[in-house]
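Quick illustration, no need to memorize.
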Amino acid sequence: MRYGQLVMGPAGSGKVSSGTFEASRLVYFMTVCISFQSTYCATMQRHGFDDKRMIKVVNLDPAAEHFDYQPFLDIRDLIQLDDAMEDEELRYGPNGGLIFCIEYLIEHSDWLRDQLCGVGSEDEEDATGIEEPDDDYILFDMPGQIELYTHLKAGNTLARLLESWNFRLCSVFLVDSQFMIDGAKFLSGTMAALSVMANMELPHVNVLSKMDLLSKGHRGQMDKYLDPDAHALLGEVTNESSWGRKYRKLSETIGMLIEDFSLVRFTPLNINDEENVADLLLMIDNVIQYGEDADVKVRDFDPPEPDDVEDDSRYYQDD
């Protein structure tokens, strides 16, 4: 059995018109926006190293330029965003180009399997007899194109492929905590997380990232979003604007969905807090049952020699 995390999250970059910037500037802009996913992967990898545990990272973001980890596997060796944007026939923009690259990866899944499982194309006939790597723990750094996870089938198809290759997976959905400090944004982020959970069909963990960048005042406000009271949040949404008052019933229905089913909860992450990082990794390990198939380590100890048995009577003196 092998284990993995699909690390996902929205780019938060807004809409950029294709052709407005040069491709290199677009790639840089998008990479900055989604960089925290790479920061999360690098943080987990460093934590694993300190804990004497091997955690590999696979980069599946064709637009990435810089990250703090050394990728075990890189999609850019197969296809890059520039390939889709500069092709005379395709001429995709940055958003469509990212989706095309992931779909291209799925169509060429043999390449991904060969890289992950060590089975070359020449060995396809004997692939079933080859012992694949076991107990690997891999983080898949996904692109920040949220459509891949909320409603398109590409993310789900990739997950099913990995599961067929003996991976036990968990989807980790990152949401910037700086955009979750009021009721309306919280409800919006919660619905996005719920869409990802339903579409990916995997064990799911939601993470509020960048907690270390929040001011003290905003950190104090985060408690009500970590254990949300839907009625209190609805009061903020419905009373702050004319739009909120007009669509009060819609907001109430969304709030009831969140509260009644308790489907979405967020876990805060401060990458500067080692205990926080360890707790989050332990939670995800429990979700994917990491280590439960491992053999129990048993050591045989020889009984002590008679001469080595300590005589406790020497500590007591007769009066």
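Residues 300 and 308 are 18 Å apart (CA to CA).
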